[in-house]
Amino acid sequence: MTRHATIDRKALASAAARLQRVTAGARGAAPALHCARIFFGGRKVGLTATDPDIRLNLVLDAETGGAGGAMIPARTLTGFARGATGPVTLTEDPGAVLRAVLILDDGEATLRLGEVVQMEDFPAWPERGLLAKWEMSADAARRLLSLGRHCISTDETRVHLNGTLLTVKPGGRTLRAVSSDGRRMAVIDSDVEVPEAFPGGILPARAVAVALDILPRGGNAPVMFRAREGEMDISMPGARLRAQMIDGGLPFPDYTRVIPSEMGDARVTLTAAACRRMAQLASAAGLRRESGVVEAHFDPIAGRMTVMNHNGAAAAMPATFHTPEGAPTAQAWGMNLKLLTELGRVAPIFTLQTGRTSRDALIARGEDPDAFWAIMPMWLGI
Fold first, then answer.
1. Alpha helices (runs of H) in the chain, residue ranges in sequence order
2. CB within 8 A of 292, min separation 6: which ones?
3. What's this model's pTM, rounded to 2 decimal places?
4. Distance between CA atoms of 130 and 251, rounded to whole angstroms?
5. What domain range includes position 47?
6. In the listed set 66, 95, 121, which residue is the last one of a domain according to the structure?
7. 232 has which bridge partners?
8. Residue 267: what pLDDT?
9. Are the beta carbons of 189 and 124 closer than 8 angstroms?
10. What's the burial of 271, exposed, middle or buried (CB within 10 Å: 0-12/13-18/19+)?
11. What is the pLDDT of residues 93-122, one digit of tens each?
């Protein structure tokens, strides 16, 4: 008797794409790491993909006949589901000629797959010791990880910056997320209290991306975080992500040292639209420096944001400055326009404020009172 499961096409296509994003990190690895492991039975289908650092398990509703399982290349499952015209039926047929172990059928097209990887070749991932756990809503988890994602370093030589630091806010027990590439930094606070046993750790950038992919938008569904020995376990109804925390021999830098202890008086408010338009003007006029950086200069006296090059070409737009009456007029300062444009994607309106000294980072705040971004001068980083 054959064993089978029938799955909604859209649900399977979405799940398969997420699994393939996990296996994409296993380039050149054993064949099993390029496959999705499938179990079905009891009106459910479980799908799992893994690479050496992260493991994703998804559970989908299905019409099932019997219980079974198989291994299938993740890209094959994604390709079939994406092009399917109706519900997809997976049929395990171990006694078929040519050792076809899995048949995919959408009512029109049929794909017969021979055995490539055996189920027992799929890597085991033993449960690790639990250190701490806490629960938060899906919306809160998305906010915590998404607002600073653009600040994560992509420089592979700075392993300790290739992720988001999950830690506690100094002086309390509430969860904080910190991301930095050495030029800018995001500090995102939450109101979730974590146990004292939580040691903190760096969640890799790929795990951050996968977590944001599976966290539902606009929902209060509970998400459970479990800090294990060297691992973060994030689970919610229908999905579980396990990720090894970064251990590159170097700790996350002391990010607090670049946060000004006192803020200056000068502030400028910018919009994402203004930053994008200035970037378009700079690109159209070829106002990049030899290094490729477009540097925007802010002049509180003139009330302008200006971009220029060494040939005297320039583009300018108004900028709204706020300086308290009687306070000294701030000196003009310059910033990388690309960093401001990327900040505008998560904070449509934000205010930049200087520290008391020229060595201080500029602090940007948007409408979220528990989030801020520090943008370091070109010569200062962490």
1. 9-23, 74-83, 138-146, 205-214, 272-285, 337-343
2. none
3. 0.90
4. 22
5. 3-121
6. 121
7. 227, 243
8. 84
9. no
10. middle
11. 766 555 557 899 999 999 988 877 888 889
